[in-house]
Amino acid sequence: MTRSWRPLCVVMLALCAAACENPATPVHQRVLGADAERGREVVVRIACGVCHHIPGLAGARGIVGPPLAGFAERPLIAGTLPNRPEVLVQWVRNAPRLAPATAMPAFPLDDREARDVAAFLYTLR
Amino acid sequence: MSRPFSTRCADAAALAVAAALLAGCSGPQSALDPHGPDAQSSLTLTIVMTAGGAAIFVLVMALTAVAVLSPARGRRGLGAPAAIIAGGIALPSVTLTALLIYGLLVARQSGGAPGEPLRIEVTGEQFWWRVRYPAGDESAAFETANEIRIPTGRPVVLDLISADVIHSFWVPALGGKLDMIPGRTNTLRLQADRPGIYRGQCTEYCGAQHANMAFFVVAEEPAAFAAWRAAATQAPRAPELPQPSRGRALFLAVGCGACHTIRGTEARGTLGPDLTGIGARTSLAAGMFPVNAGTLAGWIASSQHLKPGNRMPSFDTLSGADLRAIAAYLESLK
Questions:
Q1: CB distance from A96 to chain B under 8 Å?
Q2: Is B305 within 8 Å of A62 when comparing Cβ atoms?
Q3: For residue B247, which of B121, B282, B296, B325 is within the disulfide window of CB 3.0 to 4.6 Å?
Q4: Measured distance CA(B34)–CA(B154) in Å, rounded
Q5: Phi and psi at residue B170, in whole multiples of 5°?
Q6: Nearest C-alpha in A relative to B316
Q7: For chain B, what are the domain ranges?
Q8: CATH code of the domain covering residue A90
């Protein structure tokens, strides 16, 4: 009986430890080593709000792109790609490479910035 | 024992207010953080007037307290003819005259370093700023928008005009405020002592987007300024990369040139801002957004949503790829 409990305990412990990072973000949406707060600063700096409605950001009320409220819960990015961290990190840097018809341009972000932005987007639920 | 919740809330609120007040003292748009001789003398004048007013207020309150609280003999002293002449006539005449003379002197001596000033013409338009550098010994005339580049340590004379309604020009960190009145040219002298980017704002209500009518003054070392000016008079080279090249062709085909000028192209419209060099400007849409391919595309597609009432229509018939191409072209104009 004790034995069968062990794996469950391990899973629960792992979940608890993971929860310390950001309780709202589920494991499959974690972006390794990224900081959502830094991502938020990048989003403000390059003014994503010109095209997107972003909850919690002053002045971010654009209508050209889709609103980003609840983005973390969406199954698809831009209605075409699976909403997974590895895809999203590429998408925020170079959307036209993944979807040539999109109006969203490529942004000169480095890898860390792209990861931070993705982490920020997964806080939107 | 921990203090009650309400006390802690009050402390937090007081801290927040203090932080907000202190934060208001510096930054790119503050008269309390001067970066030029005119702004400095305005601040000194403000401090002297405020301190003088406060001293007089304290004196009057003290005399009031004496009049109300002191015994009858003290009150009689206050009512004596000598006291009335000294405190009621002599003191105000002397202090007010002194402050008036000081204020007039400060207003007269504005201007900064001696020497030939740089002249720039700034036109207020609903809801942006047209900036024209007249032809000088060093360079040909050219136009830009929403950004005024000036050299440090040299006085600048701005010819302020308006194309439509009354606007007002103010860069708090550099100098005083002056109205832009249709049919008139007002001149404002200012000078930046140090390189920096200073924000200015329309300070006379001018219509729906008055609050979104800002600009930046970019002060640079004289050598950097001369280099910028020399480059700014040149027409930009046609882009070589495929995407901006396609964007250039689209820009002309869509008809952007009816309102905008890009030197070196057939786009020669004068209704809207000159876009030569837009990719290197500090802001888009008169201080609203940074300039990058994303903000340019978003602005072109939804300018009426972002700044309702401005003269540029939203170009919502362009495909995503075309929009990106035009934005890439504009961003390349540096």
A1: yes
A2: yes
A3: B325
A4: 16
A5: -150, 125
A6: A64
A7: 29-109, 118-232, 242-331
A8: 2.60.40.420
ipTM of the prediction = 0.81
Read off the pTM: 0.83
Which domain does A37 fall in, by range?
23-121
CATH classification for the domain delimited by B118-232, as one of 2.10.60.10, 3.30.499.10, 2.60.40.420, 3.40.50.1980: 2.60.40.420
A62: tokens are 């654009």
Comparing B311 with B38, the larger pLDDT belongs to B311
**Interchain pair A105, B324: CB under 8 A:** yes
Amino acid present at B300: I
Total number of domains in chain A: 1
| Cβ-Cβ contacts under 8 Å, B319 against chain A | 101, 103
Q: Which fold has domain B242-331?
A: Immunoglobulin-like (2.60.40)
Range list of β-strands (E), chain B: 118-125, 128-133, 142-145, 147-151, 156-162, 167-170, 177-180, 186-190, 196-202, 214-220
pLDDT digits over B196-239, tens only?
999 999 999 999 999 999 999 999 999 999 999 999 998 898 99
The residue of chain B with its CA nearest to that of A51 is: B298
Say if the Cβ atoms of B327 and A105 lie within 8 Å.
yes
Q: Which residue from B293, B295, B302 is facing A63, i.e. has the nearest CB?
A: B302
- Across-strand partners of B187? B159
pLDDT, tens digit (0-9, with 9 covering 90-100), for A23-59? 567 888 888 889 999 999 999 999 999 999 999 999 9
Contacts of B293 in chain A (CB under 8 A): 105-107
